[in-house]
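Quick illustration, no need to memorize.
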Amino acid sequence: MRSNQLRNAGATGLQIGLLGFVLAAAGGACGAERSAAGGGEVAAKLAYCLDCHGVSGQGYRGYFPMPRLAGQQPEYLKNQLQAFIEHRRTNNIMFNVAHSLSPSMIDALAADLRTLDPGPLGGGPKRLVATGERIFQDGVPDGNVAACAACHGPDAKGTGEIPRLAGQLQDYTFNKLTNWSKERGQNPTKPDTSAVMSPVAHSLTRSQVEAVAAYLSYLK
């Protein structure tokens, strides 16, 4: 009698152990499937971004210049996507895109874009590059304009919420700087961190902006 009870208890314990193993294995498989599905979703979203921003995120010259996203600072990308959502920055197309992204998707896309490193497209007038470099590195002392390099770094790679400018399309940079107040800081209830650029953008002449944009377009 006693031996039968022990055998039955042992069999039950074995069954419970096997069930636990099966459930654990199934849970691990489901977790792997979820991870793979999440990775596939990120890849699909990234491909969607690159449809407009260039196959390697290097930017694209279409009807409108599409900015380079490759190598961009993740914190800056996340901040700007949130700026579109909160109408701190105006762009109806990007509002619709950003509004559909979850915070975790935004984090994943920003991290993936940071790893891309294609060469710059160039295209800015080469006769302006030397002038642009001087303004970027030294500023315009006579106009009380600080050097761009002071914040964006001497290599224009940026840091944190300060964006990378190296390799950015010349016409995109020019358009953004010459139209700064029409697009940035549009929601007074939510001040934009980019407000620090407003006096700089307004202090540079169009020819100076064109020169800086030309210089940046060739910078790796």
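The chain has a mean pLDDT of 85.
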